[in-house]
Specification:
This protein is of the alpha+beta class. Helices cover about 45% and strands about 20% of the residues. The N and C termini lie far apart (about 90 Å). It is found in: Cell membrane.
């Protein structure tokens, strides 16, 4: 090996070995990085251009769609008014209706109606004139065209002008086309005889109800080259990009560079629009030429086209062509064209600079490498000679190297090696003693830590309760983005199922968190009663109906009885009482294999009773209500009774069932204590269990029914509304992005702020209509930010809604006192967000129809099919119970049991389960031949 190294050294000096590889690596790396940088820049530009085209096309389609929808909305309103007699051109009646519509839809050029006797009335603001004018033409004595000015409250003044031309609306193209086609339609673009601008008319024929007689035609004019040109010119399309709208003949409807005059090449009744290939703008003209070459007929374009082409100078251009249709006959093409040079100019300049810098760095590195190699080679040769001497046995060899710190250290290491070996034996004993002392100190620290742990254990309940914000905030993102993903109609079925599993798992996790927080809040003294009046008899009936099939599936008789003097309406915490009763009855059914489970409710204690009656005197309007649950189940061992109500503790039977968390009875007892009562248990193994408890309640009058409206999925905003600005203030980015992604697609303008101070700055400049305000944030929290906003006159007009993960009721009072207009907890359902926005801003939403379509109207399979006769009654009863309780996990498990033998049935039932249509599953089970499932009423569902 030494011979090889010696020969290699003679062939290639050490200095060359140090310099050449370094230079080669530097040159190769620089070239590779430059090439990859350029390629990545090109890909980034292509991607950016595609995203920009898609975004601009979507904005244009939305603007055009909104723009062309309003005329037919106006026509529909005028159709109703004409039929009802509120609008009558022959008597010049209805001017105020036109005036109100022109105020609501300012983008429409002229609103008018003509009737069969030749009368005409219209309203609009005409170029060259100030104010709004009414145009009236009557069949007698002459069909002259008269102008009337409209004042600021919609009243008509005296005539201010006339047109010496007999005007008969029945001869006009818009009237004749509507009469001929007998349905709403668009006219061709024509030249307005008064303003001399290209006009597009939306006309609707009006027929008398019953007889079908034509009453007249209502119409509305648009000037697309005016409104759409203005909108397109406001869009920023790179630096030199253009947007324009074409007819299927290749004529320019609107352009970001043209006004209404230069779009005309023939001004007559049948005007001819400017072909896009003849545009004065080179990019518009080149794009139109390319489209005509690429497609023989522009009507062949029936979907979005992504195109690339080059101009004569060789510059590459990006173009996107998107069809636009509506139900009334519009058929346009939206074109977005962007030069690649808009993005690549700076990138090319950076690449040139990079090449020069790389070359300079290579030259500089070569010079530095030569000097460095000389400096390193000399001390290495000295160190090599010393190492050879030590290898030959001269351990006392002294090595002296100066100039390079690392080599000096290496030389000193050779010299100190022997000395350190001798010293190591001396220090070993000392290190053992030090380690022993450290262990003693560790034991003392362990005792101290044990004491701290005991203190921490005493404070665990308060700590867990205060951790609500940290637990529920990420869960809000999980549930929120799951709901947001499920809104997508393009989500594949398998992915929808996966997202549904995530959503249901999040709901289950939220339930577990709420159970733990219930315990913690109770122990921390932060749980309060939510007193309300309710129907106690109905609550008991609901519980019996809810649990009936679960008991019947196990051949267990469930009975619910009450004393004759039991009041019907009481006031206490209904939800806590319901939770206690469901837990006790469910436990009784679960641990009873045969026999019965009974619930008896009375104003007198059961006899015999294990309860200790309240010693204090109750108020006159308050009385104790006693509940006794008895079962003939497995029973509870005597040694387990003392630990029965401890959190996370289960009996032997509960452990064997492998169900539950051991929190149910603990929470039940805490709730009973909170309602002023107590609970006691008596049990015998193999015989059964009796659980009795009482609560203190107040008598109440009849309670109103709580009706929950059916929820439908929001798909957008109703037309004709202003653009609402919404500000989201939250220090967690994932919470802000959730609201942005939920609201932006619907048409809201949404901005974000990461703390209260930033939120105040945006509010002051942007003036949003509504603010979603998180209350716990750095820099400035939501309390101070809300107080500062609401302290101003402008802030009183801004709705501020608190969005917090806190579950403490007392914090709600603090938040509202800070000035917030409303309060919403995380995690939230998307419908809660829409309801709050509608409540505080008056926003009108558009809703989707039922997603399942016609399939929801029919059962998933033929009820009389022989294949359904073999479904076990126990399975049908279990499915009915799970659907009644909206237990999606149990429903899915039961569907899986029949998926092999009834694949089609399982698929349909799964679809209903994923859409949370448990009511449909209940109806299907009830309709099965021989089914004994009780039909629940609307209140149960």
């Amino acid at each position: 090996m030494g011979v090889f190294n010696s020969r290699l050294g003679r062939k290639l000096p050490l200095q060359a070995l140090l310099v050449l590889p370094f230079l080669l690596q530097l040159a190769g790396t620089t070239a590779l990085i430059g090439y990859l940088s350029y390629r990545n820049s090109q890909r980034a530009v292509n991607h950016l251009a595609l995203e920009l085209r898609n975004e601009l096309t979507a904005r244009i389609q939305q603007e055009v769609s909104t723009y062309v929808e309003s005329p037919f909305v106006i026509n529909d309103l005028n159709t109703i008014a004409l039929r009802q007699g509120d609008l009558d051109p022959s008597r010049a009646k209805g001017v105020y209706i036109f005036w109100k519509q022109s105020r609501s839809f300012p983008a429409n050029n002229l609103i008018y109606c003509g009737v069969e006797d030749g009368s005409f009335m219209g309203l609009g603001q005409f170029r060259g004139n100030q104010g709004v004018y009414v145009l009236i033409s009557k069949p007698s004595p002459q069909r002259f065209y008269h102008y009337y000015q409209i004042d600021e409250v919609g009243n008509r003044s005296s005539p201010v002008g006339s047109l010496d031309w007999e005007y008969d609306p029945r001869t006009r193209p818009w009237y004749q086309k509507a009469k001929r086609q007998q349905k709403p339609n668009w006219s061709n673009i024509y030249l307005d005889f008064d303003d001399q601008v290209p006009v597009l008319t939306a006309s609707t024929p009006v027929y008398e109800e019953g007889s079908g007689r034509l009453l007249g035609v209502c119409a509305t004019d648009l000037v697309p080259s005016l409104e759409l040109n203005h909108f397109l010119s406001q869009l920023k399309v790179g630096k030199t990009g253009e947007t324009f709208i074409l007819s299927r003949k290749g004529e320019l409807i609107a352009s970001s560079t043209a006004d209404e005059e230069n779009l005309l090449i023939n001004a007559g009744e049948d005007i001819q629009l400017l072909p896009a290939r003849d545009s004065q703008n080179p990019l518009v003209s080149a794009t139109a030429h390319y489209l005509e070459q690429q497609f023989d007929d522009l009507r062949q374009i029936d979907q979005v086209q992504q195109l690339e082409f080059r101009l004569l100078g060789g510059d590459r251009q990006f173009a996107q062509v998107s069809p636009f249709h509506d139900e009334y006959g519009l058929d346009w093409l939206i074109v977005v064209a962007i030069p690649e040079s808009d993005f690549m100019a700076e990138i090319n300049a950076n690449n040139r600079l990079t090449r020069w810098l790389s070359l300079g760095a290579l030259v500089l590195a070569a010079g530095i490498g030569v000097l460095t190699s000389r400096w390193i080679a000399r001390p290495i040769l000295k160190l090599n000679q010393a190492a050879q001497a030590i290898a030959e046995g001269d351990l006392a060899q002294t090595v002296e190297v100066n100039g390079i710190a690392e080599l000096e250290t290496l030389a000193q290491s050779f010299n100190q090696m022997g000395h350190q070996l001798r010293d190591s034996f001396d220090t070993l004993e000392q290190r053992v003693q030090e380690r022993t002392a450290e262990l003693a100190e560790s034991n003392r620290q362990l005792e101290l830590a044990k004491e701290k742990a005991e203190v921490a254990n005493e404070a665990k309940s308060t700590f867990i309760a205060n951790m609500s914000h940290e637990l529920r905030s990420p869960l809000n993102a999980v549930l929120g983005f799951s709901q947001l993903t499920l809104r997508s109609s393009s989500l594949p079925p398998d992915q929808r199922e996966n997202v549904g599993i995530i959503y249901r798992s999040g709901e289950y996790l939220l339930t577990l968190i709420n159970n733990i927080l219930d315990i913690s809040k109770i122990e921390a003294g932060k749980t309060t009663l939510n007193l309300k009046s309710f129907n106690l008899h109905r609550l008991l009936s609901d519980l019996e109906d809810m649990l009936y099939l679960r008991a019947e599936s196990k051949d267990v008789l469930l009975t619910v009885t009450r004393s004759d003097d039991l009041p019907q309406y009481i006031q206490t915490d209904e939800m806590k009482l319901r939770q206690v009763l469901i837990n006790l009855l469910s436990n009784g059914i679960k641990f009873t294999q045969a026999g019965s489970v009974s619930l008896h409710v009375s104003t007198h204690p059961p006899s015999p009773t294990p309860l200790v009656l309240p010693a204090q005197t109750l108020p006159a309007a308050t009385l104790p209500i006693y509940f006794e649950v008895r079962d003939t189940g497995v029973g509870i061992a005597p040694e387990e009774l003392s630990h029965l109500f401890e959190a996370f503790t289960q009996t032997q039977a509960g452990k064997e069932s492998q169900e539950g968390t051991g929190l149910g009875l603990a929470i039940s007892r805490k709730f009973i204590h909170l309602m002023g009562g107590d609970i006691a248990v008596s049990s015998e193994l193999g015989v059964g269990t009796a659980i009795a408890f009482y609560i203190q309640a107040s008598l109440s009058e009849a309670a109103p029914l709580d009706l929950q409206p059916a929820r439908r999925r929001v798909r957008g905003l109703a037309s004709g509304q202003p653009t609402y600005r919404i500000l989201v203030v939250d220090d967690k980015e994932v919470n802000r992005r959730l609201l942005v992604k939920l609201l932006s697609p619907l048409g809201f303008e949404v901005r974000e702020a990461s703390n209260g101070l930033e939120g105040i700055e945006i509010w002051n400049d942007w003036e949003p209509h509504l603010i979603w305000m998180d209350m716990r944030m750095p820099v400035m929290d939501g309390y101070e930010a809300t107080q500062r906003i609401k302290a101003t006159t402008k802030g009183q007009a801004t709705a501020v809604i608190a969005l917090t993960a806190s579950v403490l009721e007392e914090e709600k009072v603090v938040i509202l006192s800070a000035g917030c207009d409303d309060f919403l907890r995380k995690p939230f359902h998307e419908q809660n967000i829409f309801d709050a926005i509608s409540k505080h801003l008056g926003v009108v939403f558009l809703y989707d129809e039922s997603e399942s379509g016609s399939r929801e109207q029919e059962p998933p399979a033929d009820l009389h099919s022989p294949d359904l006769q073999d479904l076990p009654d126990a399975w049908k009863a279990a499915l009915y119970t799970a659907a009644l309780e909206a237990d999606s996990a149990q429903v899915e498990a039961l569907i899986a049991q029949v998926s092999m033998t009834h694949a089609a049935l399982a698929q349909d039932l799964s679809q209903w389960s994923h859409q949370f249509r448990f009511d449909k599953i209940l109806e299907w089970v009830e309709a099965l031949p021989g089914s004994t499932a009780p039909i629940p009423d609307a209140e149960q569902l």
